[in-house]
Amino acid sequence: MIPVKTKRAIRQNRGVILATTFVLAIAFTVAFLSGNVVTAMRDAANSIDANRSVNAVQAAVSSIKKKLGATVRDNAVWDDAYAAVSSQDADAWIYDNWGSTSEDYPLYDGAIVLDAKGAQVKAYLKGEEFDAISAFGPDFVRRAIAASGNRSPDPLVNFYPFSGHVMMLATMAVQPFGDQPENEAYKSLTFFKELTPDYVTTISEDFQIEGLVLSDVPQPGQLTRALHGTQGQPVGYLNWPELRPGTAVYDQVKPRLAMLVGLFILFLVVVVVFSALELRKERAVAAKAAHDASHDYLTGLLNRVGLVRAIGEAPERTSVIHLVDLDGFKAVNDTWGHAVGDELIRLVARKLATIHPDVLAAARLGGDEFAVIQHGASGAAEFGARIVRALAEPFDIDGRTVEVGASVGFAVKAAHLPELEIIRRADMALYRAKEDGRGQVVAFDEQLDREREDRAFAERRLKTAIEDDEIQIVFQPLVAASGGEITGVEALARWAPPTGTVSPEVFIPLAEKSGLIEALTRKMLLGSIRAVSSWQSLELSVNVSPIQLCNPNFAGEVKTMLVEEDFDANRLILEVTEGVLISKPDRARRSIDALRAVGVRFAMDDFGTGHASVGTLRQFGFDKVKIDRSLMSSDNNEVLKATIHLASSLDIPVTAEGIETEEQAQTAREAGCQLLQGHLCGKPMTVEQLRDRLIPDGRPLRIA
What is the DSSP string of 440-508? Predict the structure, then answer.
């Protein structure tokens, strides 16, 4: 007979076994179902991402073709160009306006002018003359001849092979802007752009296509998109890796199950290791004080003091000092927080210290800047490239995949140079590497110092121009789409010194980099307010730099200016781009709210080209939206209409920029634009020319 306690124990054990079995069964079932769900989600995520990247590449190719086409259209449909290419000074004019520009211009690498029969007039590649017909072949000539007799507003854009490279060519007849002469075959203008690795990298970054490269053949295991020539033949292939985000997440989840089993063992190991570490801790305290004097507290690498000492001890002429600056580190801090940022700094430090056997010492100079001393000057460039490649690999931090890049500048140690001068030279090279774009390696040479002096001279020249009122304010009318009345003007800066006109695309960024943008903006605001003050019904639009908008003193300065000039704040419209709203939204909001409180209005400029959404428009409460000129020149009216409807849904008036033809004006009206701006409505003009366009009492004048 079985005892009662035994029976009770058996029942309890049986219950535990049954409960355990039941729980295990549920656990296995949940695990099985979870595995199926995760697998399905993985495959779906992979497929979605692949389709997204394919569409992004298609959009990228379409975008760069439209961009080059728009550039050649702006230069070909031009009265001055039409007259100049047939004049006695055609060669000089072509070189001055197109040939010399191609030497170092981001929009195109070369320009070709053919006559109506396909004979070469002039052709330039990177500022140098070359034989375009031999380079691109008879098919190019045929298409150029076709373009010469084609009055279509759309250029011919195609890809061509060129000495082992791929060129994108846009061709259009050089024709007058206004009336077209009948039965005349025009000369043709062709701009071409090489799809260099740097240019493809820029496309990759702009359209968020990681790893996009151009090659002669499709790469196995990668997504690909062929670039077709004029006969439909592939002249190159865009290849990019399939990121497979679903697989990446799936691979991260699988080890978690195994980690649960090892937690208890890990606990015991932690206890033992902790005890051992405590014993070592006391011994480490004594060494720490001496170590901290010459080492970075976060990474354990040398600090600046230690680096200077290490450079002094390194062999002369065979030692190279590499300065390394991380690309994208601020975004890591902003996204994941400083804890993850600090861990990333540590991981980078470890990688740099062990990146090559020739490393004599590694240092952290502060923030995200590092230094490496290399023994062996002959392989300095490859050593720097190795650093760039190593830091481009993803870092795994607490289950997060963190990606940054690096730029490197280096200088060779010389006997006659002090340690700080060597560091300065490497820093100059690093500055150039960052200017050239991410992931660059630059060696110091004397030209960098000369360029620094040239840049300083340009900044001094710009400062003098601002102080001496050399920069002129011109005004471009904004007219009502329905009635054609001039309701406002936009103030634009123009600089035409005796040495030649300087584009705003040159001196505005220079002003921002050199800290002169505040003085320039004050000049623009004050000058334009005084110029249009007497026309009470006329609105004044002024562009504001992101740097200026984020200045905490900006709002106060504008309010003071309005009071002193007795200018109605409701007439002033400040135009801002969306970039500052994304990068520094809090600072931008403070300035916007402070100025809006006194009546100043705000317009979002270049809307439709970036990431601005309904949320952005609603969050910042814009009073107007300006549609970017690229949408007006696009053939896709549906995109234009959708963009306008997006703003109109919030009752925000819409202005269309870049109105060059009556057809564009009609399209803008039909799409719902309230205001028009462009050469059709009025070119930028001086205040005297503006006065001639307005009735003396200040009432708006209809377009002639």
Answer: -EEE--HHHHHHHHHHHHHHHHHHHHHHTT-EEEEEEEEEETTT-BEEEEEEEEEE--TT--B-HHHHH
